[in-house]
Amino acid sequence: MSSSVRVVARIRPLLKQELDKDTIVTTESTDGENTGNSTVVRIPNPKNDAESFSFQFNSVYEQHTTQQQIFDNEVSPTVKHLFNGFDVTIFAYGVTGTGKTHTMRGGKTLADRGVIPRLLSSIYRRCRKIEKDTAGATQVEVAMSYYEIYCDRVYDLFEPPEKRTPSGLPIRDNNGKTVVVGLMEKPCTTLKEFEHLYDQANINRSTSATKLNAHSSRSHAILCVKVTQTTETTVQVSRASAIDLAGSEDNRRTDNNKERLVESASINKSLFVLAQCVEAISKKQSRIPYRESKMTRILSLGQNNGLTLMILNLAPVRSYHLDTLSSLNFANRTKKIEVCEVENEPEFRTMVKPLAATTSISGANITRQPLRPLTNHNANLHDRDTGRKQGEKPVKAFSVYSDARKAASRISNLPSQNQGIRRTETHKRSAEPTSAFSSRPPKAFRPSDNTSRLRTAAPSELALSKASIEALISQRIDEKLAEKALQGATATAPALSAELQKRLDDLEHRIEAKEEDGKSQGLQFLLMAKQHQVRGEDASALRMYQMALPFFPGNEKLNGKMKTLEDRIRAKREGELSKLTSAPVPTISAPVAPSALVSLPTSTNLMAPLKAEKTQSKPKPTYTTDSEDEDFAPVAESDHDTTYASDSSFRYKPKASRKPKKPAKKLPIFRDSADASSYSVPSSSNHPGEQTPRTTHLLKIINSRDINKIKALKGVGAKKADAIVSCLVEMEEEEVRDLEGLALLKGVGGRTVENMRTGLSTGVGS
Ligand SMILES: Nc1ncnc2c1ncn2[C@@H]1O[C@H](COP(=O)(O)OP(=O)(O)OP(=O)(O)O)[C@@H](O)[C@H]1O
């Protein structure tokens, strides 16, 4: 079963210093009434206040919404699913200072408590209920890990900053899941215990005062709550991940100093990559750039099974206008991401640790996790241990695609395996990745690692040696598969010339060498820019160069590079638009060649700071090559070949080209004549000046992006209206200029346009 990411918006109230400010974000219900059940956020067009954009979400919470209401409506219902074996991911997204931390963590008073403490409170209540209802036959354990991603490095928040390794904890891919190696997992039996741990850990979180937020989170914080339900025969594990993302920042507004700028660049970069992932998912691209930031690797949006809730935090005031619009665009895409709802099936307890051993938990009983899957929320645990379901065949140790992987998981569940070391015994991180990338043998095979668990589990020593062999084999297989997968991923990119590859490698080496100096981040951006460029993604490349700019102020070559890209993007856009507007459209029923596909301006521009740059304000339609650029690798041939369409997040095309095998469907052609049913069209009908009042009125409604008005058009239901608004949002500032353009929108055909028009007859001239 699959469902979309649930996206809800929350508008924070005005802060003290904003009371005299202009509020521009409003809400309404889908039917246009203000019934209190809002689902629509409305915001004016930054270019024209008379127009507004509307965005529909699963729910929209207004300024006065309490913490309790958010929890009761959105989070509380997920607890039941958590205990039914589903994993739950809840994350807050928004610009800096919009209320993410307030929503997730909240304040100290009972009423102010945020989603996380309330979630834990609810979990503990349910634990007690289950234990009571089953008369103790089911026991529930709660354990948590809490870490932050700061400047693209992962730090355990249970560890004070002075004890951190500067490079942070490594993350690894393990059987397709992302894991943080060496993270502490603390059992946590009561709410009080949780509160103590959580408060302590939050002191370790990186926050600083910025101009936009006195307590700005400078990192993404991820709390993972593991719930283990143990019965006489089964063990079921599910996880709730609550993520407070750092907010994007427009550094022209922050007055950030160098240190804050570096943090900010890292935050913006990871959010930019997240936006790219969401865009790639929504375009069903085969390559999702998860790996380009640790946050996206860990969040794995769209890959994590279970339930996902995104809370979009918004500030209502005008000073956030572009930021808010950009967040709304992001959320609008996110809501379309499908996630699989797969529950974790109970594991049979034949080989799991004895119940007695698992129940004695206390605050001091802290374990390090050797490999804790973050996104392995819903791995099917059927046959992961030797207690596989009765009647099932024993797993084969040498099967590459499934069983070998399961064998690896299986061994990690054996009691004799070193699952973790008591903190009191050693301060050394216990975890070595048993992942494909580890060159050292897994700790389980090192004699010194045979700690208390191993000693208490002597009976399975024989099984361990067999399992060890299996694990080693599966590890090698994983290694090979990972290599192959990586090769596969790169194989899709255009082949690089040896020279270009060398320059990219040089750049990577320079980044490594400069790890300690502030320019490393800038070089990272340059590298990413180059990689985007090589893939023909000009707009994304430009974005990355823009992000690199603060690190290389006044760098002529960088400026030149950006200008070249800007010109190229603009030229492509103008070329495409002129095709759309100037080409006579005698008929659009004929199949259309791919080159004629219409690409509208990119909306990859999800980062408000960049969006506001207005990078395309000076037209210069000539192309320049960048071969003279010494500092950066030359552009691959393919880069020049690609069309702007490759950067565009939205393209529409006549339906005829979508189904090439069928004969082209004859689309009705509209004209603004009195006879609306006539399908003959004078080419001059493209000119808005010649549109009839009815057409003008219809286009006005469409371009208002007002979901309620669009929905009210004849033949347009809620779904179609939502699709139309989504298309329009993707088109950013571009408008639908004529009926042909309208008919080409996704989900709209000639018949729908005709219906829309005829439905508008009352009071409007034909
Ligand atoms: N719903 C709300 N009710 C009252 N105050 C709020 C609400 N939401 C946010 N605030 C206040 O707004 C300010 C900014 O909120 P917060 O720190 O949660 O923002 P943030 O999005 O987490 O910012 P950053 O990304 O910089 O960490 C704080 O003073 C917070 O108390």
UniProtKB/TrEMBL annotation:
PROSITE patterns registered for this protein in UniProt: KINESIN_MOTOR_2
Biased composition (Low complexity): 675-685
Domain Kinesin motor per the UniProt entry, residue ranges: 4-337
GO cellular component: microtubule; microtubule associated complex
Top-level taxonomic group: Eukaryota
Entry keywords, A to Z: ATP-binding, Microtubule, Motor protein, Nucleotide-binding
Annotated Basic and acidic residues bias: 380-394, 422-431
Transmembrane domains' residue ranges: none
Signal peptide: none
Residues holding ATP: 94-101
Bias type Basic residues, positions: 652-665
Ranges for region Disordered: 370-394, 408-456, 608-694
Compositionally biased intervals (Polar residues): 410-421
Gene Ontology biological process terms, A to Z: microtubule-based movement; mitotic spindle organization; spindle elongation
InterPro entries, per database record: Kinesin-like_fam (IPR027640), Kinesin_motor_dom (IPR001752), Kinesin_motor_dom_sf (IPR036961), P-loop_NTPase (IPR027417), RuvA_2-like (IPR010994)
GO molecular function, one term: microtubule binding
Family to which this protein belongs: Belongs to the TRAFAC class myosin-kinesin ATPase superfamily. Kinesin family.
PANTHER family referenced in this protein's UniProt entry, alphabetically: CHROMOSOME-ASSOCIATED KINESIN KIF4A-RELATED, KINESIN-LIKE PROTEIN
Protein name: Kinesin family protein-like protein
